[in-house]
Amino acid sequence: MIPRYYFVVSGSALSSVSPLNAFDGALKEAGIHNLNFVEVSSILPKGVTRLELKREEVASFFEPGELVFAVQARRTGREGEYVSAGLMWGEGVETNGFVVEHQSSATTSEMESYTEEARKELTDVLRSKFQEMARIRGFKTKAPRFKTAEIYLPKGMYGCALTFLILC
Fold it and tell me: N or C end of the chain: smaller count of CB under 10 Å?
């Protein structure tokens, strides 16, 4: 079973009830809330094609309840935290490609200045992990891409940020 296609989605959400409900809201924002996920490691098959699917198209691409394979980055948290999750991936040039994931959380009271700093830190960590994985494997990939999600969790709230690469 070798996937021929992939696409990447992200979402973030808040809930006053629980981290699980925040996760469910983030799945809905990403357009993948009616699917069942099997978490896989970070290998993109040789020759895989990236699909550009809009949120509405994702819902019609799969049957509700369908099992779907995904590389996942997700972080949940509680009030006063800033949570983020991201993926960086590259399709192989003459081999398979790969995906790296990173998620983080931090407590902060200075949201405005922290947001840009946290985004930069997330992409820097993803880039560093990606370069090291390419070095270890001796792979050359097409230009790497990345996608992230983040959210600040105000008082009394739980939250979730997620980014999934779906293989199909």
Answer: N
